[in-house]
Amino acid sequence: MMTLTIAIVAMTAYHSNAQVSLNINIGAQPNWGPRGYDYVEYYYLPDIRTYYHVPTKRYVYYEGNSWVRRTSLPPAYRGYNLYKGRKIVINEPRPYLRNRTTQVIKVEHRGPHHKGPKHHKGKGRH
């Protein structure tokens, strides 16, 4: 009986697998990004309505009728100071596809004293 118990414990230990997933991109984050995050997928720059994808080091913004990925800021914002601008950390895939939700959250986070529209209407960039 004791031999059977040892055999079952040994087989269980032999067949168990441990899976560990760890995502860290500390060295890949830009110097202008907020400190204290082990991993960041995107930064949203609400002042210029642009996302920055940390793993590929590309800016994502709406141009014409579609979202584009570029190595530089939109032409109208090339002089924008990334160190002083607001940044929102987003760790989800392709948040720009849900841009309307991001815009509403941005407006609602302005605080109770903000006097302005709560929601944007229409399509595209606002």
Q: Taking all residues together, what is the mean pLDDT?
A: 73
Taken in chain order, the helices and strands follow as: HEEEEEH
Main pleated sheet: 5 strands, antiparallel
Terminal Cα span: 74 Å
> Low-confidence spans: pLDDT under 50, at least 5 residues?
1-13, 104-126
Report the principal-axis shape.
globular
Describe this structure in words.
- Strands 4-3-2-1-5 form a 5-stranded antiparallel sheet, with no helix packed on it.
- It has 126 residues and is α+β, with helices and mostly antiparallel strands.
- The protein has helices at residues 2-15, 99-108, and strands at 42-45, 50-53, 58-63, 66-70, 88-90.
- The protein is built from 2 helices and 5 strands.
- It starts with a helix and ends in an 18-residue tail after the last helix.
- 19% of the residues lie in helices and 17% in strands.
- Mean pLDDT is 73; it is low at 1-13 and 104-126.
